[in-house]
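About this split. The held-out portion is used to measure sequence recovery: a designer receives only the structure tokens and must propose an amino acid at every position. Recovery is the fraction of positions where the proposal matches the reference. Here is one held-out target exactly as it appears in the evaluation file.
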């Protein structure tokens, strides 16, 4: 099973809509059955910056990709 954990940190202007947009991009990139868990935090020192930390596990390997055998 594919599992994805991600956290979004942004300034006070970060909106739930923007967080949802990031979640949709991630959701489109992983298995439709993936278990996705996310968190959100605000850091006023970040102004208009956004930082996303993502950890993913359980991806099946695909042959033919660079670095695979």
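Reference sequence for scoring:
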């Amino acid at each position: 099973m594919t599992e994805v954990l991600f956290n979004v940190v942004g300034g006070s202007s970060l909106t739930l809509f923007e967080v949802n947009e990031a979640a949709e991009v991630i959701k489109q990139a992983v298995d439709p059955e993936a278990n996705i868990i996310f968190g959100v935090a605000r850091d006023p020192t970040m102004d208009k910056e956004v930082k996303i930390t993502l950890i993913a596990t359980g991806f099946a390997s695909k042959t033919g990709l660079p670095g695979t055998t």
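Annotator remark: The chain has a mean pLDDT of 89.
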